[in-house]
Design a protein that fits this description.
alpha/beta, Aspartate Aminotransferase, domain 1, Aspartate Aminotransferase, domain 2, 2 domains, seven-stranded mixed beta sheet, two-stranded parallel ribbon, 14 helices
Length: 367
């Protein structure tokens, strides 16, 4: 009989899946969620221009033809908006895909990536997939700690450092100067992966200006969050041209969905989408703050589309997740101590928030 063996790296990996999808939870509970506020998705849909562009493109040119492997139109728009050159941008199927490519591009088996304990876990999954080693540093007062990240990068001779700003799962941000100092303090052969998935929700002055001449930083942004296109799978990396050239050696050149390209280009030309979504998210966060205040629960100021609300212990937070699930509300929480006593309450539609706030106070009594 044929016996197939996986590669030795794959053989060594556990059978884990990084996230259990809300769809899987719905299948298990045999009912749809009423409030889906657990995956930091947008509750506010896509740009009207993008919707129109997709509608017009459905058919031969939008679906039957492959996408443009250079994502030329999107890059042209991004160049105008970000002051970049096309060679400094790589468009692919979301940040998650680009994180995987970055790891493949820069790590050999046994190389080290430094991250924060409890930070966005997808990058860890990719690092393990190439036989890399992960060193975590603790958060500092619910913020990622750039000083500790730089120190650990030196101590472990890291090839990569991962930092999300603003951060998932805590929603906090770190200062411009702190990020610039981190970059200055990285070891010679080490690249910072600066994940800016929630960039659009943060006031612009909080984002550092990083010259793309610096070859030790790659920034990642996405159309999944503020642009409401998570299901379409499109995002981009930008940085020094030499790094972007590396992506071209390994990326799937026809891997970006053509309708996603069309929608992304239209979104970038829609002047209304970002201000509208930012306002809706700010209003949604304010409602979560008010609810938490009314219930006497501490929470963290958020620069994202979710708020970390403190339930005082991991046990209480775990129990709350299962109560919420029983009552039709999908939510997630940080997985590692000491962050794991928080609930990550997403900004939903007005209806989703109202439903959540109608149930949450009673459920709190049951803990
Ligand atoms: C920090 C962070 N990075 C990346 C992603 C995924 O981005 P994309 O949908 O572009 O793959 C998420 C999604 O929740 C995230 O929180």
């Amino acid at each position: 009989m044929t016996k197939i063996t996986f590669s030795s790296i794959l053989e060594s990996l556990p059978d884990t899946v990084p996230f259990v999808a809300p769809e899987e939870l719905e299948r298990n509970r045999q009912q749809k969620f009423i409030s889906r506020i657990g995956a930091n998705e947008s509750a506010f849909g896509i740009s009207a221009r993008a919707a129109e562009a997709i509608k017009n493109a459905v058919g031969v040119s939008g679906c039957s033809w492959y996408g443009d492997p250079l994502s030329y139109d999107i890059k042209t728009l991004l160049c105008e908006q970000l002051g970049l050159r096309r060679e400094e941008i790589c468009v692919d199927a979301g940040i998650d895909t680009l994180l995987g490519l970055t790891v493949r591009m820069l790590m050999n088996p046994g190389d080290v990536m430094v991250t924060s304990n409890g930070a966005y876990p997808t990058v860890n999954y990719h690092v393990k997939g190439v036989g890399g080693i992960i060193h975590g540093v603790p958060y500092n007062d619910n913020h990622e700690d750039p000083v500790a990240l730089a120190e650990a990068a030196h101590e472990h001779h890291a090839k990569l450092v991962y930092l999300a700003n603003p951060d998932n799962p805590m929603g906090t941000r770190i200062g411009v100067e702190e990020i610039l100092t981190l970059i200055d303090n990285l070891p010679g052969n080490c690249v910072l992966m600066l994940d800016e998935a929630y960039f659009e929700f943060m006031p612009e002055e909080f984002a550092p200006k990083i010259n793309t001449a610096m070859a030790n930083v790659i920034r990642f942004r996405t159309f999944s969050k503020a642009y409401g296109m998570a299901g379409m799978r499109i995002g981009y990396a930008f940085g020094n041209e030499s790094l972007m050239k590396g992506y071209d050696k390994i990326r799937n050149h026809f891997g970006v969905n053509k309708l996603a390209q069309i929608a992304a280009a239209a979104s970038l030309q829609d002047e209304k989408i970002l201000p509208t979504v930012r306002d809706s998210v700010a209003a949604g966060r304010a409602k979560i703050y008010t609810l938490a205040d009314e219930l006497g629960l501490p929470y963290l100021e958020s620069f994202t589309n979710f708020v970390a609300v403190d339930l005082a212990s991991s046990e209480r937070a775990i129990k709350m997740l299962s109560l919420l699930d029983e009552h039709g509300i999908f939510m997630r929480k940080p997985m590692q101590a000491p962050l794991d006593r928080y609930l990550r309450v997403g900004v939903g539609t007005a209806e989703e928030h109202d439903f959540f706030s109608s149930k949450f106070p009673d459920l709190l009594q049951q803990l």
